Amino acid sequence: MELSARNQLKGRIKDIKSNDVNAEVIIDVGGQEMCSTITTGSIQRLGLKVGDEVAALVKASSVMIMK
To answer: pTM here?
Structure first.
């Protein structure tokens, strides 16, 4: 599968907090935490669990940089 998203960050799922509708997935990306909110159905369909290696794909019209 090919995607147009160029920002692909590999990491490991650190925590999953879910309710009936949504889930918050915390991913450790090289020592930094990234949070993704997806549906609980997607968690089940993908079989996601803490410790899984995943790729976070970021597609945005702008990326802010701070120094």
So the answer is: 0.84
pLDDT digits (tens, 9 = 90+) for 1-51: 778 778 889 999 999 999 999 999 999 999 999 999 999 999 999 999 999
Q: Radius of gyration over alpha carbons of the chain, in Å?
A: 13
CB neighbourhood size of 25 (10 A): 22
Residue partners of 41: CB distance under 8 A and separation at least 6: none
Q: Are 32 and 17 in contact (CB under 8 A)?
A: no
What are the structural domains, with CATH classification, of the chain? 7-58 (2.40.50.100)
Of the candidates 58, 43, 42, 63, the residue with the CA atom closest to the CA atom of residue 9: 58
Pairwise CA distance, residues 66 & 62, whole Å: 13
